TrEMBL record:
Keywords: DNA-binding. InterPro entries: Homeodomain-like_sf (IPR009057), HTH-type_TetR-like_transc_reg (IPR050109), HTH_TetR (IPR001647), Tet_transcr_reg_TetR-rel_C_sf (IPR036271). Residues 1-20 are annotated as: Disordered. Residues 20-80 form the HTH tetR-type domain. Gene3D superfamilies: Tetracycline Repressor, domain 2 (1.10.357.10). SUPFAM superfamilies: Homeodomain-like, Tetracyclin repressor-like, C-terminal domain. Residues 43-62 bind DNA. This is TetR family transcriptional regulator. It holds the Pfam family TetR_N.
């Protein structure tokens, strides 16, 4: 007879059913608030009230508004990552590194434009959280690998940070709202930044 499974060191513990339900209720409440009033309306108290749970539960689950908003962005991030890690070329594997890099930066521009409001509020709450989160680390690694293949004479890790630096919501908000640039105009300008 088999005994209970022991946890593996470094492996995430499975989420309890009630914790998973609460997490989903919190994320749904935050998404509803954004749809109704914009991302600036998302506070821990407002989300707790809308979800019908205690504010302490929201804080224990997410810690602060920034982490809650980044969790809300997670599903979109997963789709974006799947596209550049396993999707069809030129964004996915199978195209030369320079073509993949260009396709990636164009797709990233679209991604930032689509998620700009939520990203702006999340970045305002915690400006450096972006650099420590899984999505940024995955993008940085991906760009570094492409640069290492395309430009072995450069430091790919530093160059990857510099290429990703402009992809913040505040700049894209300025370009699309204040300057009234289209996504295609932004992508044409991005092509001028490509080191390959």
């Amino acid at each position: 007879m088999a005994g209970p499974e022991l946890p593996v060191s470094g492996q995430e513990q499975p989420e309890r059913a009630d914790a998973a339900r609460n997490r989903q209720r919190i994320l749904c409440a935050a998404a509803e608030l954004i749809a109704a009033q914009g991302a600036q309306a998302v506070t821990m108290n407002a989300v707790a009230h809308r979800a019908g749970i205690g504010v302490g539960t929201v804080y224990r689950r997410f810690g602060d508004v920034s982490k809650l908003l980044f969790a809300l962005l997670d599903e979109s991030e997963k789709r974006f990552q799947a596209a550049f890690l396993t999707g069809p070329p030129p964004l996915g594997p199978g195209a030369p590194p320079a073509e993949r890099l260009r396709a990636f930066l164009h797709a990233l521009a679209d991604h930032v434009i689509d998620q700009c409001e939520i990203m702006r509020v999340a970045e305002k709450a915690s400006p450096i959280a972006r650099y420590h989160g899984g999505p940024y680390l995955t993008m940085h690694t991906h760009v570094s690998v492409l640069l290492r293949e395309a430009r072995p004479d450069r430091d790919p890790a530093v160059l990857a940070h510099l290429l990703l630096a402009p992809f913040v919501s505040s700049l894209f908000d300025h370009l699309t709202v204040d300057r009234r640039l289209t996504a295609d105009e932004i992508k044409a300008a991005i092509d001028g930044l490509l080191p390959v």
